Amino acid sequence: MRESDALHALLGNTIEEPEVDYDDERVNSESGDPVIDDGLQQYYFASVIDAMATKNFESDYKSVRGKIRLYSTEQQQLLAFSILQNLQEKYDFEFSLNFTPYNQDDIDELYKFIEFVEYDHEKFITQIWNHMIKFDGTKLDIETFCKVNEGKILKEIEEQTFTHYYSEMITDFLRTYNKENLIEWFCEKSKNLKSSILITLRKE
Fold first, then answer.
1. Is the dihedral of CA 128, 133, 136, 138 positive or negative?
2. What angle in degrees, to the nearest 10, is found between the helix axes of 73-91 and 104-118?
3. Do 36 and 9 belong together in one domain?
4. In terms of Cα–Cα distance, which of 62, 61, 59 is closest to 83?
């Protein structure tokens, strides 16, 4: 079995090379060991990339998010570019807008985008359902509904992007993502949020 990139970074990049003089780097190292610092940084960053498009993303990402935000903007740019480079492979998606993470605000917006795609979308999803159906107390079959109401779902998603504020990256995702993939994304996230959806519908 192939080791994950995160595990490889942790195990392979925290061993000092015998021919390298690390004395000057130790002076500027927070832990006192620049090799460990570099290995941990690569481990934290690889943990995010490895977890993209997996069920473990939220827990894996949150476990390293605080550490990542302690790094300089220049260091975080490495992770930001890696996220961008992996969008196509992980989600079959690329931004239609021209986006380059030049500063911390840009990087933070990219974090918010990936959080929205993965887990921070409960309000968005429940609002869509609240506008689509009037719940009569019967069983809600999310998968079947999604299959027979693709047009309605896409229309409501588009409406949300015009009536509510979302960042430029999130809006680009919702408006330009392949329709089949968008429906699949919406359906899978809805199934994960079924209890919240039912609570919202019953309130109405």
1. negative
2. 30
3. yes
4. 61
Strand ranges for 25-80 from DSSP E: none
If phi > 0 it is left, if psi is from -120 to 50 it is alpha, else beta; for residue 59 that is alpha
How would you classify residue 34: left for phi > 0, otherwise alpha for psi between -120 and 50, otherwise beta? Answer: alpha
Together in a domain, 55 and 91: yes
Number of domains in the chain: 2
- Which residues touch 136 (CB under 8 Å, ≥6 apart)? none
Same domain, residue pair 22 and 96: yes
If asked whether residues 104 and 128 sit together in one domain, one would say no
Residue by residue, pLDDT tens for the chain (204 residues) are 344 665 554 444 444 544 544 444 443 445 455 557 889 999 999 999 999 999 999 999 999 999 999 999 999 999 999 999 999 999 999 999 999 999 999 999 999 999 999 999 999 999 999 999 888 777 899 999 999 999 999 999 999 999 999 999 999 999 999 999 999 999 999 999 999 999 999 886
Say if pTM beats, i.e. exceeds, 0.85.
no
